[in-house]
Design goal:
The protein is mainly β.
């Protein structure tokens, strides 16, 4: 009898321990497994075999997700959950979903928050092979939303995108065709029920500091998530990758460690945590990188201004890093510019051209108060007698004209805010190239062989020629030109920018002649740095002109480097007709009224802000939309057509 009782107790103990929890202890809020701030959401999350660290293949009998115990998910409770094996270790793009055909439905029903946990028990367990990675997909179908996001997630100690999610406010998301989503560097705090942890614990990840964190206090504690099965941890800290010159394999019994001596200012550190268990130590664990608090800037005054290298082009091959943390007021008036220059830092350069471009990039708020506005002012003279040349007016990139070659100019950079605000940044002085050969329509580069590709590295030199191009309803800058001859097929045109670009292009396609252009189509659907694509059906023998310029039809803005590709495809008659029937809105930008061409073909209009929130719904719209109640800004208009299709257009309220 005693043996039977002991065996029963052992089996109960094994059953209770047959679960693996990842991210335990985190109370950070995220958008997976569901984004309960939206009506509909769909997400996928990848958990690697190494992280799961099961002792053997086995059945997953259920999942537990963790959330704020007081969190309301009443309107986010209709779940369909899938599991699947995958060879992916991360999502490579915002459309890189694991196919629905690779997933198995394991749960379909209503969920609830019970003391900070959503627990799902599967009617049929999922057989995990313990050789591949695991993907969890959750489809939330309740046509309502809750007031706040409440689910706990834990961030990874690297930059991997292990989660992807999509949201919608007006239509349910189809897991077999989820559309474009958003990538996240975190995943749910989750428990896999039915699996037993391996004897050797898996690697853990840091809670704090986060990977690539900046301005970390020099006396901060380092904390990490517990690793299932770990009895202790070994921590190493160094000032080089893989280094341990600060702390070398020190054993820690808890999940937190504070170095015995404060760290150094202005220093980058690398931390590695190894979990130790009864079966051995975790291996292959990655490092977390962070940087400590900065010293006050040396260029705090005009007299200590740092000399900037003037680049011979717009590529910013040479740029200088700086920050305004603990900078003091130089007591130099900003008039006629704006803002509070109480944390200004100073730079100077010698002009090599009558025009230069000053650009700020990689701006990060590093103060005790969040800062979103970084400004600069250009001055000349000497530090005791400075005169204003140009104000930035919140521009990240500004053309400075009317300069004198050989003269020294000063640039003061500051946050436009009160005490506590500070930012780090990179500053670059660029030189505008001469106008490119295809600056004018008459000099359009000919695409004679397909696929055609051309990189316009000198786009910044493009002029606006005789003014804005307003032939189409959505006017634009006159940028650079290309042309091709139609052959009856559809030509696909794509414009893409290099990483980090702030160029916001528009593509205009025209027929006719350079002296008498006729609008064929135009596209400006995305923001700065994002690609634009357009498809144009062609007529045999007709010459088509393509203009790539800044989207603005009211301000002559600088074009950035881009690559244009033109490909051909053969479409059926119905597809060509659909392209030709693209609905246009005008004027764009608009003040009070936005007109819709062919409004009789539009069933309804959804107007969303740039964060994706639904601002207005208009059923059976007339040709004139009265939108005076909208604030100034950029909006996304979704036109729901009577034929069942949708068209998305970016509109600007001025």
């Amino acid at each position: 009898m005693k043996k039977i009782l002991l065996l029963c107790l052992l089996m109960v103990s094994m059953f209770l321990n047959a679960q693996i929890t990842l991210g335990e202890g985190s109370t950070t809020i995220g958008k997976v497994p569901v984004d309960n701030y939206w009506e509909y959401s769909y997400s996928q999350q990848i958990f690697t075999k190494q992280e799961i660290n099961a002792n053997a293949a086995g059945n997953i009998t259920g999942l537990k997700f963790y959330l704020d115990p007081a969190g309301d998910i009443t309107n986010s409770s209709d779940w369909v959950v899938y599991l699947g094996h995958t060879s992916k270790t991360e999502f490579d793009s915002d459309a890189d979903w694991v196919p629905a055909s690779d997933l198995t439905e394991v749960y379909n029903g209503t969920v609830s928050n019970v003391n900070g946990m959503v627990e799902l028990t599967f009617a049929t367990p999922f057989s995990y092979n313990n050789t591949q990675n695991l993907v969890i997909a959750v489809d939330e179908n309740n046509p309502a939303y809750d007031d706040d996001r409440v689910f706990y997630v834990h961030h990874l100690n690297n930059t991997s995108s292990r989660s992807i999610g999509n949201i919608s406010s007006f239509s349910d998301i189809d897991p077999s065709d989820p559309g474009y989503g958003s990538l996240f560097d975190y995943r749910s705090v989750v428990t896999f029920m039915g699996l037993t942890p391996g004897a050797i614990p898996a690697c853990t990840s840091l809670i704090s500091p986060a990977n690539n964190a900046v301005m970390v206090p020099i006396s901060s504690a380092i904390s990490w998530y517990p690793s299932p099965g770990a009895t202790s941890y070994k921590i190493s800290i160094g000032t080089t990758p893989g280094g341990s010159n600060v702390v070398n394999q020190q054993t820690v019994a808890t999940t937190s460690f504070t170095p015995s001596a404060p760290l150094s200012l202005d220093t980058t550190y690398y931390v590695r945590i190894i979990a130790v268990g009864a079966g051995g130590e975790s291996s292959g664990c990655s490092e977390t990188k962070f940087s400590t608090t900065l010293s006050p800037p040396l260029n705090d005054e005009c007299t200590t201004a740092i000399t900037l290298t003037v680049n011979p082009d717009m590529n910013c091959g040479s740029k200088t890093s700086g920050h305004t943390f603990e900078a003091t007021d130089s007591n130099v008036s900003v008039d006629p510019c704006y803002g509070e220059a109480d944390d200004d830092v100073w730079y100077k350069f010698t002009a090599t051209s009558v025009s230069h471009v000053i650009s700020l990039s990689n701006m990060v708020s590093i103060g005790s108060v969040d800062s979103y506005s970084l400004m600069f002012q250009v001055l000349n003279g000497d530090c005791s007698n400075l005169a204003n040349v140009e104000c930035s007016d919140y521009d990240e990139l500004k053309v400075i004209s009317g300069l004198t070659v050989g003269e020294t100019y000063y640039v003061r950079v500051y946050t436009d805010g009160a005490a506590g605000e500070a930012q780090s940044f990179d500053i670059c002085i660029g030189t505008i190239p001469p106008p490119p050969v295809n600056d004018d329509c008459s000099g359009a580069l000919a695409a004679s062989a397909f696929p055609y590709a051309y990189t316009q590295s000198d786009a910044a030199g493009a002029t606006n020629n005789n003014g804005f191009i307003s032939i189409c309803s959505n006017s634009m800058n006159d940028g650079t030109w290309f042309k091709f001859t139609g052959d009856g097929t559809v030509h696909n045109i794509k414009v893409s920018m290099p990483a980090g670009s702030n160029f916001d292009p528009q593509i205009g396609v025209f027929s006719g002649t350079c002296d008498n252009l006729v609008c064929e189509s135009t596209i400006d659907s995305n923001g700065q740095g994002s690609a634009e694509e357009i498809s144009v059906p062609t007529v045999v023998g007709t010459t088509y002109y393509v203009n790539v310029g800044h989207y603005s039809g009211v301000t002559d803005n600088l074009e950035g480097a881009f690559t244009i590709t033109i490909n051909k495809e053969t479409l059926g008659t119905s597809e060509v007709s659909k392209t030709k029937n693209e609905i246009k809105v005008y004027p764009n930008p608009f003040a009070e009224v936005l007109n819709i061409a062919k409004a009789d073909q539009v069933k309804s209009v959804f107007i969303l802000d740039t964060a994706g929130r639904l601002m207005k719904t208009i059923e059976n719209p007339s040709s004139a939309l009265h939108l005076g109640d909208l604030k100034q800004g950029i909006y996304v208009m979704v036109l729901n057509m009577k034929d069942g299709s949708k068209q998305t257009i970016k509109a600007i309220k001025k």
